[in-house]
């Protein structure tokens, strides 16, 4: 039996469940349960915080997972990615207060930047020869400049309305992300075979949606 970890409640949850159901896999859900077994495919679904999914798959607690590429790469586990799933598309962007001048990433030299993605942002800046003070915070990153915590931010953007509402201007795209299927790297041959069946179904669902 394959164990698949998906987000318990958040932006990935509904689309993850829909994808599994459209693969013809039936299971019951209840908001109290942290796992469910499918009735017509050897699959167990675990409901977890998205941040915990890459580590659980790496350690083999789960065989597979569905998670944002942003979370996967920030966790330092990009090698677990099997394929992009085409939903939860977003970008990780740098933004500065609307009135602040900005020409290029070099303007961030010596500045303080609030983010929940210190690894991805750190390597982006390092590749461009920029040294900044990164303040790692886990949420509400967009308010950091207005409360004097940082001069710039780096956070997830989709429509851009949160940035706008907080008086910020998007200046660089650091990373583009979507939901991805991830897998443990030492699955048994039986589990590999089941993974291939699941991937075949997922690809058929995506072709049918186009
Ligand atoms: O509780 P748990 O830890 O599981 O969930 P979470 O709160 O960490 O994650 P969640 O549910 O917010 O997001 C899960 C994943 O969805 C992210 O890791 C991204 O891969 C993806 N995703 C897609 C987004 C967005 N779009 C998004 N817009 N994640 C977050 N946002 C936030 C962003 O942080 C910002 O505050 O929405 C705001 C910006 O949205 P716009 O539309 O105003 O630009
Ligand atoms: Zn999270």
Describe this structure in words.
- Its cofactor is Mg(2+).
- The chain is an alpha/beta fold.
- Helices cover 28% and strands 29% of the residues.
- It contains six helices and eleven strands.
- The protein has helices at residues 13-22, 53-59, 69-74, 118-127, 161-165, 189-209; strands at 2-7, 35-37, 43-48, 64-68, 81-84, 90-97, 112-115, 133-136, 152-157, 168-177, 179-183.
- The protein starts with a strand and ends with a helix.
- The mean pLDDT is 97.
- It binds phosphoribosyl ATP (PRT) and zinc ion (ZN).
Strand content: 25-35%
Number of domains: 2
**For the terminal residues, how far apart are their CA atoms?**
30 Å
Task: Identify the strand order in the major beta sheet.
Answer: 2-3-1-4-11-5
CATH architecture group name of the largest domain: 3-Layer(aba) Sandwich
* Structural class by sheet pairing and helices: alpha/beta
* Heteromolecules bound: phosphoribosyl ATP, zinc ion
Order of helices and strands: EHEEHEHEEEHEEHEEH
Q: Report the biggest beta sheet as strand number plus sense, adding barrel if it closes.
A: 6 strands, mixed
Instruction: Please count the beta strands (DSSP E, at least 2 residues each).
Output: 11
Q: Give the overall silhouette.
A: elongated
- How much helix is in the residues? 25-40%
Q: Please name the CATH topology of the largest domain.
A: D-Maltodextrin-Binding Protein, domain 2
**Average pLDDT number:** 97
Would you state the CATH class of the largest domain?
Alpha Beta
